[in-house]
Design goal:
CATH class: Alpha Beta
Oligomer: single chain
CATH topology: Rossmann fold
Order of helices and strands: EHEEEHEEEHEHEHEH
Radius of gyration: 17 Å
CATH architecture: 3-Layer(aba) Sandwich
Amino acid sequence: MNQAVRRVAIVAAMPEELSALLQAMPPGQQVQRAGRTFWLSQWCGHEVVAVLSRIGKVAAATTTTLLLTEFEVDRVLFTGVAGGLGEGVRVGDVVVADALLQHDMDASPLFPRFELPGLGVDRLWADADLGRLVVQAATDVLAEAHVHGLVPSAPRVHQGLVISGDLFVDTTSESDALRLALPDALAVEMEGAALAQGCHDFGVPFAVIRTISDRADDAAHVDFQRFVLEVASRYSLAVVKAVLERLPR
């Protein structure tokens, strides 16, 4: 890649999370790597590459490595849905991660629970400057959001810890256990911490943006697919576009 070009990656785990964004992107090139389609385009003054990581930490790590080596991106935006954990984090809200942690990482007694062996930390911090930009963009987007009754209250933006694991958390007992172990966690999902570790290893700034689809308990959202398509996918498009418009060129 030409060193003068700055390329931004846009990543989601499921097709429904990326659908509106792909429809809005100007036509460009499609590249196949490792069973994935990478959509390359020019959008809002940036070179962009969008891709579905697929679900889970290993899939996210593979996709991140490809983005950073094959496509030489210098910023990564991950967008999609998550389950809410923190008090006051409600369906329809947006959580921007300031740190990511793998809640199913446990190499004890060799290392403390949650610590990443070889790194000496359990949390990987998102880029602060990019995070501030994302929070402001999301705040502006949600101020004008119209979700036609799918969201029970006016959506809000939160920033804090997002936790990841290879487990779809959808019972009260599971979410209660996570809140007990990690009381400051705002949301739980399945990819963000793996992407964060890849970006950390390569020294590339990243942001993780999650729309809350449910409370990760027995009272899951009644129409998940409709919510993702009509709410989360639209949020993803609007927030990512607003971020791209504000990023330095």
